[in-house]
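Need residues for this backbone.
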């Protein structure tokens, strides 16, 4: 396996233009001769499928939900970044590039990060043209708010429903193509295998989640836009259905998996209320614009009503420790600091498993400065959601928040064209590793998904097809197609026929998630990771022996669906921990306790780890092969992140 980033050379700001100027095109009349499979209809897949359909390719789009509109992207609340500089506060493409690369702790690829910043403005134009109802200033210009890791306001938003509104835009574009006949939409279809013929991705195998029918679909190339793997932790802010199956199946067929240990823990989630909870809820990071984070200074105050604790006894720990960025430090920094104060016994809220894991996010000062109406206009639906879940009114008492697993910066390794190490297989959106390094800044995932879908794939897929031109026909009776179908059938048979069926897949997932959260979550160390690596194969073995899946494979069977996804998390978790152990440095969200400054900040080791870790599947889950893509910084020299 060889990693070639295929980045264009020359000045950073010219690379994307140069790449498009010199890439191969497919003649409009020839596009309909090519079939492109897009798995996923969230922001990345929906935008990609719609744009490729509009170009005239014959697109087949797959999603496991009953409608593209139910993709996890719909959950995104806070906003989407772009360097429009409407606020005249000094923003620019360069600054967005700078903040993203620095925010990712210099573990991202410079060319990709620049391209993302460059494309950001076109995304907003495209979405506005579609009618996405972004918030506006009184004068009519689009409004912006601030997110962590930036000193400018560049986040475009639609109240707390930005993902939903953007997805409606992409969905409309997709529906238009479905109506025009260029996109064939397959909902309730789950990809369970990748078809690789002569080393080239040529299709997928799906299972209908309604009838259980297993089908092979062949194409000229395949795009995976299947989202992230944050649910490996079991408890996360992701939709319950989000999973790593498509990416993991591709990995097993030869696609390198990059930086799996880069997982983002979001600082502002509603804390876990009990040990049997199965889902966590995000409170948008945008709340940190106006909410002040604090805990009591004294342990004896943690059970007192927050309103009864005087100002002098409140510890505004982010404002004190990071005076420049205050409550707007990046997510990894905010999360770790919440952990530290709770580990010090200053956490608030109910005790779960012997600890109070909560800090206050307080709007009292904003309400008295701006008025309740203004706060309601900005965050009304988030406040309502919080009250519905906790029964507490955040206009009257501070919210309680705590970090939770939220996003995956790691993913399938892709080159500048978003192509994986399997020719003909592309990965877009959260499913790839490409643009955020070791820590993603808030509001940058939507930007990346739409950049990949609306602007990058339409060119790079054409460039690939224009280069390979006439691919040999693959028929459904081809040995490699039949082999992929058989692998799916065998696996389903195994899931349905465990020798000692006694526990649900969810029980195993909960056990795995608790282990990974504990040993490979917000903080990691060598001993804990080794412990996790010893336990994961043992949990996996028990899973295959004891998993209980009632019913059959030939019908609607949600337990079977879940069991298949958990089985893949069982394998993936091992790679995640191997990567975390191998990366013997701290960077961004990957915090190795052995490598921290006296003040508890991440300490990178650029000499040994300034690279992307891309893992190749060898057939032995415990012994994947590491490939390194060196990271070269021409424009922005790596520095120690400081938000003080
Ligand atoms: C609560 C929450 C709030 C967020 N808020 C923000 C925000 O304000 N700003 C921001 O920038 N980011 C935010 N994010 C992150 C952002 O929402 C996601 O990173 C982004 O939406 C992912 O988009 P995607 O298109 O890559 O994947 P998804 O939206 O997850 O879509 C995945 C698609 O793949 C399909 N799929 C998956 N596996 C299979 C399979 N095996 N077979 C068939 N189909 C499959 C699914 O059906 C779905 O259509 C938030 C995340 C969460 C959890």
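Answer:
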């Amino acid at each position: 396996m060889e990693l070639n980033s295929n980045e264009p050379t020359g000045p950073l700001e010219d690379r994307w233009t140069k790449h498009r100027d010199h890439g191969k095109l497919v003649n409009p009349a020839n596009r309909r001769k090519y079939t492109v499979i897009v798995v996923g209809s969230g922001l990345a897949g929906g935008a990609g499928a719609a744009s490729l359909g509009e170009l005239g390719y014959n697109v087949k789009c797959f999603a496991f939900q009953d409608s593209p509109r139910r993709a996890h992207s719909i959950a995104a609340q806070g906003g989407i970044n772009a360097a429009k500089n409407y606020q005249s506060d000094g923003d620019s493409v360069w600054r967005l590039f700078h903040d993203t690369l620095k925010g990712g702790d210099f573990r991202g690829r410079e060319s990709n990060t620049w391209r993302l910043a460059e494309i950001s403005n076109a995304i907003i134009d495209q979405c506005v043209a579609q009618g996405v109802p972004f918030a506006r200033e009184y004068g009519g210009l689009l409004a912006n708010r601030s997110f962590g890791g930036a000193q400018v306001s560049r986040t475009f938003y639609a109240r707390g429903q930005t993902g939903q509104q953007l997805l409606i835009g992409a969905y409309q574009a997709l529906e238009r193509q479905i109506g025009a006949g260029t996109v064939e939409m397959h909902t309730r279809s789950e990809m369970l295998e990748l078809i690789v013929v002569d080393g080239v991705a040529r299709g997928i195998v799906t299972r209908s989640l309604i009838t259980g029918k297993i089908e092979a679909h062949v194409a000229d190339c395949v795009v995976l836009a299947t989202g992230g793997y944050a649910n490996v932790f079991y408890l996360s802010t992701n939709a319950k259905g989000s999973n790593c199956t498509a990416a993991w199946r591709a990995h097993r067929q030869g696609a390198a998996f990059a930086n799996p240990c880069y997982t983002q823990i979001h600082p502002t989630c509603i804390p876990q209320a009990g040990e049997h909870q199965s889902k966590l809820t995000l409170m948008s990071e945008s709340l940190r614009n106006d909410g002040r984070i604090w805990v009591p200074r004294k342990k004896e105050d943690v059970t007192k009503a927050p309103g009864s604790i005087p100002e002098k006894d409140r510890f505004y720990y982010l404002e004190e420790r990071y005076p420049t960025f205050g409550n707007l430090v990046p997510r990894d920094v905010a999360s770790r600091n919440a952990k530290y104060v709770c580990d010090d016994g200053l956490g608030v809220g109910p005790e779960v498993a012997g600890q109070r894991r909560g800090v206050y996010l307080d709007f009292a000062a904003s309400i008295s400065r701006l008025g309740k109406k203004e706060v309601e206009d900005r965050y009304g639906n988030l406040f309502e959601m919080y009250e519905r879940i906790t029964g507490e009114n955040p206009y009257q008492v501070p919210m309680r928040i705590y970090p939770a697993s939220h996003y995956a910066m790691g993913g399938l390794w892709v080159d500048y064209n978003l192509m994986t190490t399997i020719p003909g297989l592309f990965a877009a959106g959260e499913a790839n590793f490409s643009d955020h390094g070791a820590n993603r800044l808030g509001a940058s995932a939507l930007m990346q998904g739409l950049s990949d879908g609306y602007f990058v794939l339409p060119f790079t897929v054409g460039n690939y097809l224009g280069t390979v031109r006439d691919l040999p026909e693959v028929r459904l009776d081809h040995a490699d197609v039949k082999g992929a179908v058989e692998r799916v059938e065998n696996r389903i048979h195994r899931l349905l026929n465990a020798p000692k069926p006694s526990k649900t897949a969810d029980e195993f997932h909960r056990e795995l998630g608790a282990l990974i959260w504990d040993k490979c979550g917000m903080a990691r160390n060598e001993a804990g990771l080794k412990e996790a690596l010893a336990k994961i194969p043992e949990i996996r073995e028990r899973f295959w022996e004891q998993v209980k899946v009632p019913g059959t494979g030939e019908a609607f069977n949600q337990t079977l669906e879940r069991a298949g996804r958990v089985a893949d998390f069982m394998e993936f978790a091992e790679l995640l921990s191997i990567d975390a152990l191998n990366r013997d440095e701290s960077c961004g969200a990957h915090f190795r306790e052995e490598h921290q400054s006296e003040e508890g900040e991440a300490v990178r080791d650029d000499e040994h780890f300034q690279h992307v870790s891309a893992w190749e599947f060898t057939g032995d889950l415990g012994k994947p092969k590491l490939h390194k893509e060196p990271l070269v910084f021409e424009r922005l020299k790596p520095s120690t992140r400081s938000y003080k």
